[in-house]
Amino acid sequence: MHAKAAFLRPSWRTLQLLALVSVVLCVIVVYESYWGIPSASWPRLPSWGGVGGWDNAHPIDVLIADAAKGFKQALSSEAKSLEDAANKYRERRRRHPPPGFDAWYHFASEKGAVIVEDFWDQIYDDLGPFWSLESHTLRQQAHAFTPRIEIRDGNITMRKMGPHVRLDQWTDMLKTLLDQKHVQLPDLDIPLLVYEEPALIVPWQTIDTAMSFARPIPPAPADVALEYTGIEGVENAGFSFDPEWLGARRVHPAKANEGERPYWSLVRPACHPKSAAQQEPLLRDIWDVHEHTDEEHSAVNMLPIVFPDGTLQGYVKNWSVATDACKYSHLQGLHGAFVAPEDLNACVKMWPLFGASKFSMNNDILLPSPSAWNLSLASAEEYPPVNWSQRENKLFWRGPATGGLSDDNNWRRFHRHRFVSMMNASEVNMAEPLPRWGRNSSIGVSRSETFLLTDENPYQLANNGGNTLGSWVKSWADVAFTDLHCSEMIADGSCPYDEDFYRVDNTVDDDKFQQYKYTVALDGNGGDDGGELIERMRGGTVVLRASVYRNWYDNRLWPWVHFVPMDNTFMDVYGIMEYFLGTRGPALLQDAAARRIATAAHSWAEKVLRKDDMLIYVYRLVLEYARVVDNRRERLGWVADLDEEGRT
C-alpha cells in the first residue's frame, strides 16, 4: 500500500512541470486574445495600474495603443465612391476638386488604392502659398527655368542642360503615368531641382502673408469653369527669371571674407517667430574656421539632457513635431544637413520648384524621390511575408557616412556618425558613468565624443549602470558603415580623422537585412535614405526611423503602427530596444508587439507605397498644380456630382 501510494503521489519535479505547462497555456491564451496578428483591428490593451489605468504601463505601450486608435479612425474615413471622395475633398480643402478629378479617382480605384483624403495633405501644404502669387508669373517662371519637364498634348519632353540620373528617373515616372489607360494630364511646365538638398527657404513672414491671401472661396456650381486654359503666355520672349541663388556654399555677397554662411542662418528666418530656432541664438562659432568653438557648443554638450518636446517620457508621440527642426535649435550642431549640407543651392525667393525632399520650413514642391521610384519597380515577390521566428533578434544597419560633407572639424556633429557610435559596445562602455572614488560620475562621454550618457538614467534602463550597458548593446546591435565618405578620403577608402572610431563593412548583400527583426532608416544626403524605409517595410522588419525631412508618403504612415519613431538625437534608442527585447517584462509579449509592427509594415507598404501609389500621388499633384498656375484657377473645378444648388 505504501509503495502504491508513493507511486500515485506526484513528485516535486512533476508538480513543477505541470505548473510550467499551465503558465505556458495561460500565456498562449493571453497572446492569442491580446496580440492576435490576423485581426484587421488593433487589440485593446489591458489595464496596467489601478482599475482601467495606465499608471504602471511602459510609455511605448501607451503610444502603440494611441497610434492604433488614430490609424483605425483614419481608415474609417476611406472614400467608397467618386461622390464620397468629392464630398470629403470639399470638407477638407474648402474648394471643389480640380478638373479631371473623376478620371483621377477612377485611376486610383482601379489600382486598388486606399483613398483617404488625408493621404494627400502634403500636396496642399506644398501648393498653398502659391495661390497668393500671380498665375501667369508662375507659368513664366516655370517655363524659363531649366531643367524642366514639359507636358504638351499628352507628350513628355525633358529640357536640360546636361545628363542627370534624377531627371531621367522623374521623366520615366511621368511617362509611365501618361502611358496608363485613360490618364490625361493638362499642358504644364514642371521645374526640377537636381540637387539633393532642398532649395527654397522663404522667410516665415512672407509665407504667412501669402497664406492669408490664399484663402479658398469656392464658386457656386453654376459658375465653375470645367477645363484648364493651358499654358497661355509662357512663350513671352521678353520674360527673364533669376532665382537669385545664394551660391553653392551660400557665401554672403557683402561678407565674402567671412567665409561660408551657415545654413542655419537661413533656417531661422523661415521658422515661426516663437519657435526655438528663432528664439535661441545662431551658434556662429560652430562654423567659423577662424574661431575656437566654445566648449558648451561641442557636439556632446549640445545634446539635450531633458526629454524633447512632442514626446511621452522621452519617446516620440508626434512625428510632425519630431521632424520639425524649427522646434529643436540644438540640431544646428547635431545633424549633418544643417552642419554641412553636401549639395545645396539655396534661394529665399518664392517660385515653383519640384524636388525629392524638404525640411518643415522649406517651400519646395515634393515629388516621390528617384530612389523610391526605382525601388517601386521591384516586384512584391522580392519581399516575401515575414518569417519572424527565423530572424535574428537584433538591430541591423549598413550604410555610408552621408548626410552632409564631413571634415576633421565637424564629423562629430553628424547624425549617422553619432548613431553608429551609440551602437558600438566599446564606445558605450567608455560613455557609461561609473562609480569613482566613492562618488557617482554625473556624465560620461564616448571615446569618439559623439554622444554622452548620464547617471540620471532618464529612460530607466534596466541595463544602465555597473558597466553593463555596453555588453548588452553588443548582444543585439549589428551596425557599421559601408563607406566613411569623408572630405579627405584616402585611396584605400580610409579616412584619416575618424577611421580609428569606425569599422567599415561593405561585404554584406543588399537583402541581408531580412535576416533580422530590427532595422534602421536614417537621413542621407537630401533626406534620401536610399529607399531604406520603404524597402525595410516591404521586407517585414521593424524599422526604427529618425528624420528631419518631409516626404510624399508621410501622411499615410503611422508611427508605432508601421514603424518605430526615434528622436533625432537617438537618445531614446536604448529604451526602445530594451522595450522590444523584453528586458523590462515578458519577452513574448514585447516580441509579439514587434512582430505586429513588422507584419503591419509589410502589408501596408504593399498597399500604399507601391509604384501605382506614386503615380496616383503625382497624378493628383499635377492636376492641383495645373489649377494653381491657371488664369481661371479661382473658378476651376469638378462639380459633376452637384446640381446648381450645390447638392449631391
Automatic annotation (TrEMBL):
What residue intervals traverse the membrane? 12-31
Listed A to Z, the keywords are: Membrane, Transmembrane, Transmembrane helix
Residue stretches making up the Glycosyl transferase CAP10 domain: 515-630
Q: Tell me if Transmembrane is a UniProt keyword of this record.
A: yes
Signal peptide interval = none
- InterPro entries linked: CAP10 (IPR006598), O-Glucosyltr/Glycosyltrsf_90 (IPR051091)
> What's the domain of life for this entry?
Eukaryota
This protein is called Glycosyl transferase CAP10 domain-containing protein
Species whose genome carries this gene:
Polyplosphaeria fusca
Lineage of this protein's species?
A: Eukaryota, Fungi, Dikarya, Ascomycota, Pezizomycotina
